[in-house]
Queue: 3 jobs
Job 1
Amino acid sequence: MADGPVLLERDGAVARLTLNRPDAANAIDVDMASALADAAGALAASHDVRAVLLTGAGDRFCGGGDVRSFAASGDDLPKTIAGILKPLHEAVEELARLDAPVIAAVRGSAAGAGLSLLAGADLVLAAASTRLVMAYTAIGLIPDGGSTWYLPRAVGMRRALELSLTNRALTAQEALEWGLVTRVVDDAALDQEANSLAAQLAAGPTSAFGETKRLLRASLERDLEQQLAAESAGMSEAAKSSDGKEGVAAFVAKRPPDFTGH
């Protein structure tokens, strides 16, 4: 994709996914949601993608849903929102299923569905000046984009309720302390730090990353016996993989591993 509301670009094994409506705070309308679903589907079909970097064009990550388009819908508002949520949720599901780690690089603000996309990323780098807010109930709506699933797992139920009911804005440092972001970096260093992290992960054992993500997320719905069985099955598959064999051989030889992602 060379242009449009979502850009999908490749730099070797790293895919850069950019929300591209900077003049509208990268707010999500029907066209952006559909483009995001298409891009996520393309990533799912690209078996050589080994890290995904999710960013926003301009000085904001994402201002959430396009409230101006909501207002223009009048009595058709339910239809408008449904038209956004179907592809948006498809995109959220596709990104969650990727073996490749998804890194969000966030600056400016992340509100509403922007915060949902951030919460669904595997790792989040936030510029120090970033502010995060749920914002949904402030306009009489409810959270979407998976935030009601991700937030309680990331910050706990009490804090998830506080964010959702009071629309308290978090600074980047507060979000770090609450467990909503992975690392806070200087504003000027965000792109460099995010690119470096994406390159590091893209050189890693991608299939092992994917199974690790699935195990960790499923652990909250399983008992210990079920989780141990899943770990045993996953470890058996990892031991058969090229990267598993390479990792063991490299450890014994005391050299850096050369992972291929398979």
Job 2
Amino acid sequence: MLSTEIDFESLIQFRHFLHAHPSLSNDEQATANIITEKLRTYAPDILIENLGGCGVVAVFDSQRPGPVIALRCELDALPIIEENTFEYQSKQVGISHKCGHDGHMAILCGVAELLSKEKLSAGKVVLLFQPAEETGEGARRIMHDKRFLELRPDWIFAVHNYPQIPFGQVMVRSGTTTCGSFGLSVKLTGASSHAAYPDEAVSPQEALCELLSRLPLLAQTVPVSAVNLVSITHASLGVPSFGIVPGDAVIQAVFRSDVQETLDTFRRAASVLIKEVSHRFQLHAHVTEHDYFPVGTSMAEACELFLDAAKAEGLSTVRMPTPFRWSEDFSYYTKSFPGALAALGAGEICSPLHSPSYDFPDELLEVGVRLFDRLIKETIDRFR
């Protein structure tokens, strides 16, 4: 248990405030300002703003030799209309915290409160509030910001709440932890016509239908692994009208695998398919790539630290046999620093991530703070 008491009721209210005031990726300045003001009340030794965009870092330094331990959370919300009607529902129309980043931020603020009351025995703790996780851009930018690199973390850790597994259960996997992924947006352009003269149009209708059916099949053409997926996420043909045969269409797909080389294979295969189909139907295809996430890995020793901390706190633990299917830009950090991403069970009755009815469980805040507190102490004791 925590050796120093912190005010979890106030932390819950702070999480509710964050939930009510969400910000989208790359537009998180308002959220960053809220976090910065909260962190100031805990008097960190260093407070850095505008890191990699809107990122914020608080450093608590013992002034004694020891490991530099970074803990990371995310600032951004999602473009999802919230269905919940509780009093702290999102005040931003069409934007809501449906991945639990409000809870992740509140957990790290709880750790900051703890560190302000109980001085570290050795080393430093770096609390990183990262922008633009949902689009895969934030961690990449942080890793190009010399102010973060100058902190030289020896270890970096993160948790992500995971609905529909037992509450408080800690799940880790050494090696490949999360899938890599990227999105392709394809705009097909031909020529429109009057609906009475469809023969005068160069319509993308048939090309769109073919790509809708053939792009997902690319998942069957790559080497077999735990996860190979191609998901269509959007498609449109022209604009709603009864008088126009449309001359343009858009299709978007996300490609996902737990093998980095497979992402490159997907990219090449999709390019060949799109060129072949658009050429056959006399269309121009403009292709753009979005939301790139490398395959994520966790170091075995970092996973053991998570497991030891969880067991010390009486939490159940699981070693995952296969990687998570979702992507996380935490993968950029573990390319350079020893670290691990763990899943923290949000309970079987919690709505799925990215669901309009999802809400981070308030009871998980104390579990998260306790877990990180123990993880810090385990790491210091082992590597001071």
Job 3
Amino acid sequence: MSSLYVVATPIGNLEDISLRALRILRMVKLIAAEDTRKTRKLLNAYDIKTPLTSYHEHNKWSKLENLLHFIAEEGDLALVSEAGMPGISDPGYELIVAAGERGIPVIPIPGPSVVTTAVAVSGLPAQRITYLGFLPRVSRERKQLLKSVVDDPGTLVVLEAPHRLKFALKDLLTVLGDRRMTVCRELTKVHEEIYRGRISQSMEHFSEPRGEFTLVIAGSQATGEEKKQPGDIEHRLKQLRRDGKSAKEAISIISEETGLARRELYRIWLTLA
């Protein structure tokens, strides 16, 4: 029986494609792509001649039966999105469900993902994450969603487009408070940027946002951990001093970790024995 291959493709750098993904893209009879132009660039880079057909948000229902018929009658089909893993905030969910219901083998070909990539470099806890995908376009709906996770102890992951970033950050600050966050822009691309700070600092830093954004935000548990007692702060400063950090370096590190004022941290530094 022919199969549906769900193939992860690079989120930016074309060198991140796996050897297995390349083999599958060469082997299948047809590739269903969210953006045929971008997928064609990938195929051309590796001299892959497999035919392409479009499969995106606006034609996913009209093309569904045709693609299922192709698998049943013609051969293996590969599903790819514009970038990353299909079906994760990208077209593909409906096709995957329908294939499974008809007994068609659905085979994952894992690879790059902005979610795991961003979390890995965020510096925030990764033991538990809550993925929210793209936030609603309307502020009222955004706030409602964010209120539902305000007490979630897991690290939050959000995708956002540049023209909505300012509005999203404003609502994040309003609902969640000034939490620590890491903003990943254009991951693995030429203009990649990874910015760590508070939500308020991110609003100031990305005053003219460009590119695609992945936001990694501290969960409620991490926020609670930041409310350290003076003794905890003193112990941490002593530890950094033993590690050879200067007053400026140590205070900068603790200020970023806890949100405490540098002036207050410097006062504690001066009292260290």
